[in-house]
Amino acid sequence: KSNFLDGTKLRASQEFWDHIKADEGLTNGKPSLKAYALGDDNITMGWGHAEPISTSKYKVGDTITKSDAIKYLREDATVAADCVRRIFQKWKDEKLSTYKTTQSMFDVLVSIAFNAGCGGLWNSDFIKLVKIGEFKEAADMLPHDNKMWPKNPELVQGVINRRKGEAKRFRKEL
Question: φ and ψ at 173, to 5 degrees?
Answer without folding.
Answer: -105, 10
